[in-house]
Recover the amino acids of this structure.
DNA sequence: ATTATACTCTACTTAAACAATAGGAATTGT
DNA sequence: ACAATTCCTATTGTTTAAGTAGAGTATAAT
């Protein structure tokens, strides 16, 4: 049970975007240097945010990224999900045939509850909460 | 962010012990067969519960395991911690020199809060809750 | 005592996931 | 044209999880 570097780096990237929201476009290089993260790696992470629709991109010289919504409208759950896929503590949470006993598996409810706990928590916090 | 098989198998093992608490000793083989888990692997997991003081062991023929306390007195946090070590979502939670900026790292508080959220939840549930 | 049973200890192997690197293509401002 | 910047995708390296293996130790039953 660890948070991946993709999610951690991704948060740092999104925080930069939030701090510069409505001010300027943010470039990969800039975040890469200030956070000491490989720019090539960060590119991939930024890409997943783009795919998730969390950022808007301007290509070419003087291009860069900006949030596609206000910091208040972007939850931490959306960020972590974009970075590392759906939050699924155990496969039995979403795959119905993972555990033969699923319907009467005594543990299933616990995992589902815990998973909901975590997603509710992350879903209730926004980028705005983090930067202020 | 996944729960390891050690923890998942470990829970199943502990549930068997809870269901047989004050009834009989439970053997690795028995759980291994009924849950379709490698007995050698389960041995290792059972060992970590022993080290954590969660189970009592009787060696030799007719030996086996039983809980060292009542199911109500064993939290799920203790079980998962015994199985996969301390729950630490990010290294910056416990290692003070992991992030140079730790004191003013904007994310640290979030990880600590989320970690506490999860440990509080698991700490508030007991084996008894699961089996009843 | 001997034997069968069950836990103990430790080393090794395999497989999967994570993390990072690499390089060229496409786009845009000057 | 050229430099800056994102886009795409393939590959490599590293770490951890997962599982296997086997010899050793303790105990109950006979």
């Amino acid at each position: 049970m660890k948070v991946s570097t993709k999610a951690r780096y991704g948060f740092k990237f999104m925080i930069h975007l939030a701090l510069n929201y409505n001010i300027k476009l943010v470039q990969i290089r800039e975040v890469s240097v200030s956070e000491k993260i490989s720019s090539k790696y960060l590119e991939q992470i930024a890409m997943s945010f783009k795919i998730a629709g969390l950022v808007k991109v301007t290509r070419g010289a003087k291009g860069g990224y900006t949030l596609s919504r206000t910091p208040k409208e972007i939850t931490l759950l959306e960020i972590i999900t974009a970075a590392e896929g759906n939050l699924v503590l155990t496969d039995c949470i979403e795959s119905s045939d993972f555990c033969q006993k699923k319907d009467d598996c005594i543990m299933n409810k616990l995992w589902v509850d815990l998973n909901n706990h975590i997603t509710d928590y992350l879903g209730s916090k926004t980028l705005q909460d983090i930067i202020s």
Notes: The first strand of chain B starts at residue 55 and ends at 58. Chain B has one domain: 5-131. Strands of chain B lie at 55-58, 64-67. Chain B touches chain A at residues 1-4, 8, 11-12, 15, 76, 84, 87-90, 106-107, 110-111, 114, 117-118, 121-122, 125, 130-131 (CB under 8 Å).
